[in-house]
Amino acid sequence: MTIETISTNRSHGGIQGVYSHTSAETGTTMTFSVFVPEHADGAKLPVLWYLSGLTCTHANVTEKGEYRAACAEHGVIFVAPDTSPRGDDVPDAEDEYDFGKGAGFYVDATEQPWAAHYRMRSYIEHELPEAIAANFPADMARQSITGHSMGGHGALTIGLRNPERFRSISAFSPIVAPSEVPWGEKALGRYLGTDRASWREYDAVALIEDGARHDHILVDQGTADDFLVEQLRTHRLAEACDAAGTDATIRLQAGYDHSYYFISTFMAEHVAWHAERLKL
Amino acid sequence: MTIETISTNRSHGGIQGVYSHTSAETGTTMTFSVFVPEHADGAKLPVLWYLSGLTCTHANVTEKGEYRAACAEHGVIFVAPDTSPRGDDVPDAEDEYDFGKGAGFYVDATEQPWAAHYRMRSYIEHELPEAIAANFPADMARQSITGHSMGGHGALTIGLRNPERFRSISAFSPIVAPSEVPWGEKALGRYLGTDRASWREYDAVALIEDGARHDHILVDQGTADDFLVEQLRTHRLAEACDAAGTDATIRLQAGYDHSYYFISTFMAEHVAWHAERLKL
After folding, report:
1. DSSP for residue A99
2. For labelling, which of A75, A152, B11, B233 has a CA lying 20 to 30 Å from the CA of B133?
C-alpha cells in the first residue's frame, strides 16, 4: 500500500496532493488526487469520494471542481480517482472517447481483451480505499460518494450496492440507466458481454428495481445539458424511486449545462449536504 | 466595438462567457472572458479586472480562479484579458516562456520588432474597457483591478497610474520591481530599450518612488513561492511604501506557492475586499 507523491500544494489551509500507486486490480500505475483539510494532530476526517466522467482524469475536478473551500470548512477529505487504467499495455478503443481509456464505467470487465485491466469497480470499492486508509488521516467508518456523468453513474451504483459503507450518495448529471442509453449499451455490452442480466448491478435504475435502497440520495441535473435527453434521462431515476416507494432528492437546475461551470456551482452545497450526514 | 461570443456557460447563477474582438491597439484578434452575475434588468454592476501571469491566457483564471461564487455574492463583473497579442503575424521569442507571446508585461513596446503589436498597456487601459462598457452591464465609474505575478505587476502599475479610475488594487504574488529582477530586466529592456528611465512607469516600486499613490492596495504573497527571492521581492514594495510614507496591506501567507492553488485560496477574500470599496 505504498504510494508515491507526484505533487503537493497548500490550498485553502490544507494540502492538495496528487499521488500514484501500483494497482494489483488494474495491473497498472494509477494516479489519484486527495485534498486533506487542516486538522488537529491525530484527528481522523471523513472521506468524500468523487468519481469523474468520460475523458477525465483526477485532474479535471482537482483544478475546476471548487470543492476545497467547502471541504476545508467542513473538515472532509476529498478523493478523486482516475476513470480507467492507463498505459501502453492497456487495450484501448482508438478515437472513441466513450469507451476504453478514460471510460472505465466503474465495472469489472468480464470480456476480452478488457477483463485483465478494466477492473475499476474493485479498484474503487476495495483497493484504493485501503491505500487511502493506510496513507491519509481518514476515518473509513465515515464515507460518502459523489460523481459526474459516468462518475455519477459510478457513485449511484457503488453507493447503492454498499449502503452500509456510504452514508450518502450524490451525483451531478449522472447516467442513471446505462442499460437504456447509447453510452451505457456500448460500454456495458463490450465490457460485460451481451447477457443484459449481468448489466443490472451496474445500472442505478435496475439496482433500485431489484431492491437496492439508500435513504440519502441527492442529484443535480442541468436543464440545458446536451446529454440529458439521450444519455442521462434523469426522469428514469425518479420513476424507479417512485415505483419502489423510496425517496431521492432530484433537482433540475434551470439553464445549466454538462460542464464544470455547472458542477462547481453546486459543489459546495453537495459537500455541505454530505458533511451533515458524515457528522452523525 | 463589436465582439464575438465564443462560449457562454451558466455558472453560480450568472453567465461565464468567452469573447473575442479585433483590437486596433494590438492589430490582432484578442480573446477575453467575462463573468456577469445575475442582476436586475437594467442594473449596472461594478467591474473587477484580473490580469494574468506569464504563459497564461484568459482561460487559466477562468477555469481555476474560483472567483465566481464571490462575484455572484457581491454583484461584481469579472474581466480576464489575455496576456499578449497572438497569431502568426505577431513576432515571438521561441522557447522563451518569459518574453513575447504570453508575456506582454502590460507595456506599450517602443522597440522593434515588438512595437507594432505589443501594446497591452493601451489595450487594457483604453480599448478593452470601451468594449466592456459597450457590451456588458458594467458601471465603468466603479472599477478595481487585481492580477497574478506578471499580472500583479500589471495591476499595480496600471492602478497606480490611474488612481481615479481604480478604487482599489490587489495582487497575488506580484512582480513589484521589474527593473530590478531578471524577468523584468529582460522584458522591459527588449520592449522599451536600454534607457531605464523609460521603464519607471512600468515598475510599481519606481512609480511610488516617483510620487504615485493609492490608498487601497492589498497584496498576498506565499512564503513557499519559488520565485519570491529572485523575481518577486515583495519586500521592495513594503520598503517603497515605507519610504514614501504611504500604506499598503502586504501579507505573507505561510506555505503557499505560486500556483492557482494559492490564488484560489484567497480569491474570495480579494473579491470581497474590492467589493467593499466598489460599493462606496
Report:
1. S
2. B11
pLDDT at A32: 98
User: pLDDT at residue A280 above 70?
Assistant: no
Cis, bond preceding B113 (omega within 30 deg of 0) = yes
Q: Please check whether residue B11 touches A, CB under 8 A.
A: yes
HSE value, Cβ hemisphere, 13 Å, CA-based, for A111:
14
Q: Which of B9, B56, B63, B259 to mutate to test the interface with A (most CBs of A within 10 A)?
A: B9
Fill in the DSSP letter of residue B174: -
| Rounded-to-integer distance, Cα A21 and Cα A26, Å | 11
**Residue B11 a catalytic site member:** no
- Cell numbers at A164, concatenated: 452500509
Second-level CATH architecture of B4-278:
3-Layer(aba) Sandwich (3.40)
A232's grid cell? 442521462
Question: What confidence tens digit (pLDDT) does each residue in B85-134 have?
Answer: 999 999 999 899 999 999 999 999 999 999 999 999 999 999 999 999 99
The tens digit of pLDDT for each residue in B249-277 reads 999 999 999 999 999 999 999 999 999 99
CB-CB contact of B265 with A71 (8 Å): no
The SS3 call for residue A9 is strand
| C-beta atoms of B68 and A257 within 8 A | no
All residues of chain A having their beta carbon less than 8 Å from the beta carbon of residue B259 are 9
Contact partners, residue B136, CB within 8 Å, separation at least 6: B34, B36, B77
Cβ atoms within 10 Å, residue B183: 21
- What residue segments make up the domains of chain B, in order of their start? 4-278
* CB atoms B265 and A13 under 8 Å: yes
Residues 6+ apart with CB under 8 A from A78: A34, A35, A47, A48, A50, A67, A68, A71, A271
Cα distance between residue A31 and residue B227, in whole Å: 28
